Amino acid sequence: MLTLQELKQVVSNGEERRKVPSAKYLRENDVAVAKQRLMDCAEIIAYQTGYVLYCVGDYATVFPLFTCRDYVYEAERKIAVVEENFFDDQPWYVRLILEGEDRLWRNRETREHNNCISYSCISEEWCELADKGQCLLERIIAEETVRGLMNLLTERQRQMIQRIYFQQKTQKEVSHELGITVPAVSKCISQAMQKMRNNSDDSARTLKKGDWKYAW
């Protein structure tokens, strides 16, 4: 998996440019060096010129990659900071999703106040994101953890886990779909869970049941 630090080494630093290109311009004229489809019909693309395009449905924002430094947010009425170097070894898009989500959220707030200025078109200082910042960060990291665990499994085991945990089906429903007995489904699930427990670190063992739905 490409890390954020590795991505920074292969793109240009466009931080000092005053005019940020539009999403349309990037798609038509720039070279994409990294792309990731995300949950909730979202997509994030990093371009050679150092700009990032983040889209959720019909909404999009563009920002320079190198402005994404420390992540600051408010949690339980206190200001919390995730330092820039924490994200360096994370998948390249973790920090950039947080930036994109914050900008789209601010844009929506601006539109609601009848002041249609896109935050992707101005230079701004990083400031607090609401409590949702911590939840979103934890959600992204949980998604990456679950994906890593799923890669440990056989294809049949992945099919079982997907149906039971992601699609919320019963073991009886899965047995009918796959043409096997219910005890065979139960045994396969137990073996898959044991394999993940044996090969996961402490952070993976703390995943909550709701975290699984974000990984597929």
How many structural domains in the coordinates?
Answer: 2
Q: Give the CA-CA distance, first to last residue.
A: 17 Å
What is the H/E order?
A: HHEEEEEEHHHHHHH
Strand tally is 6
Kindly report the average pLDDT value: 76
Low-confidence stretches: 116-134, 203-209, 211-216
Describe the main β-sheet briefly. 4 strands, antiparallel
Numbering strands along the chain, what is their spatial order in the largest sheet? Answer: 1-2-3-4
What share of the residues does DSSP label as strand, in percent? 15-25%
What's the total helix number?
9
- The percent of residues in helical segments reads 40-55%
Description:
The chain has nine helices and six strands, in the order H-H-E-E-E-E-E-E-H-H-H-H-H-H-H. With 216 residues, it is an alpha+beta fold. The protein has two domains: 4-68 and 87-121, no CATH class; 146-215, Arc Repressor Mutant, subunit A. A hairpin with a 3-residue loop joins strand 1 and strand 2. Helix 4 packs antiparallel against helix 5 (132-150) and helix 6 packs across helix 8 (182-199).
